[in-house]
Amino acid sequence: MKKLICILLVMFIVVFYNVGYFEDITNMVKEKFLQKDPLVNIENDYNEESGEEVIYNFEKIKIGDSKDSVIQKINKPNRIDKSEYNFNWYVYNTYKENFVMVGIKSNKVVALFTNNIDSCENEGIYINKDLKYIKENYRTLKYRNKGNIRYEISYNDEYGIIYKNKKYITVFYDKFDKGKIWAYQIIEKSCEDEVKSIYPQEDKNIEESFMYQIIDLINSTRYKHNLKKLSYDEKTTICARKHSEDMKNNNFFDHENLKNETPFDRMANEGINYVNAGENIAAGQTNAIFVHNGLMNSQGHRKNILGNYKYIGVGVIFGGKYKTYYTENFFG
Q1: Rounded to the nearest 10 degrees, how much is the dihedral formed by the CA atoms of 215, 226, 91, 182?
Q2: Which of 203, 186, 199 is nearest to 81 (CA)?
Q3: d(Cα 235, Cα 8) in Å, to the nearest integer?
Q4: What digits encode the pLDDT tens for the residues 233-284?
Q5: More confident residue, 16 or 151
Q6: 226: Cβ–Cβ under 8 A, 6 or more apart, which residues?
Q7: Rounded CA gap, 103 and 191, in Å?
Q8: For the sheet containing 8-9, what is the strand order?
Q9: Could you give the CA distance from residue 131 to residue 274 in angstroms, rounded to a whole number?
Q10: pLDDT digit string (tens) for 117-126?
Q11: pLDDT in tens, 237-246
């Protein structure tokens, strides 16, 4: 499914905020036997789960708390990611369905994200409340100004942005679960306002952060649905990254490249052996959270994310016509 981004010229340049483009290719079974390929372990990324109760202390973390107090409450992070903002995400990804990120700038908390735990900073907005509750009790923003550009926000009942008490709170809805809130992000006002574009700068470290976060979000979502996590596969990551880069460099958006190669051709070219495989592609979403939310709210993409696979590779590339390109390859 493709959605058009419209640009209107008024007093500001007006574009749509976080609409993006999506395509999916559903699960296809080939008559091949799965052969074991060497997998590359991501250091500090998928460690053995520790005591899960400690992560619920996330609820007590406040904007402005010190980095040391965060570590005291929920331990050291499993990974530290460079973000598209002027802060780093402290990532906690070993608590199965409870995925948490804490934004740290100058040793202070400036941002929070989770997909399963409530927060003392969420202004009465809770996981599993729904779209109707938000519409009845809060006013969502209609546009955002970034420099001299005004971005109109096209929600499509998939998310909403609320400004309250010097915080921007973005809530993410699940259309396939009665419009319930499945995640939220809180950004301190000054951090949001100092960023002059909705799209990240071209930075390989941020591309890598988005790649890891997409895998974290997919696996946490699978845990929520009582499914096993997917293992990172280096060959599949290379395959996915090459396709994202190809789409950017050659100005197209499709599963089939300009050489008429399908995802399955490209995976075979990388020496990937599979019984079943699938691919999701997206473009134009501003970060890993938004792209995952959009894919989960599209039935075909959702089917791949929750599919009967064992391995995953994700390729994220910045630049080009749509600013961001994402490819997710799955196989089992």
Answers
A1: 100
A2: 203
A3: 42
A4: 999 999 999 999 999 999 999 999 999 999 999 999 999 999 999 999 999 9
A5: 151
A6: none
A7: 10
A8: 8-9, 13-17, 149-153, 143-146
A9: 40
A10: 999 999 999 9
A11: 999 999 999 9
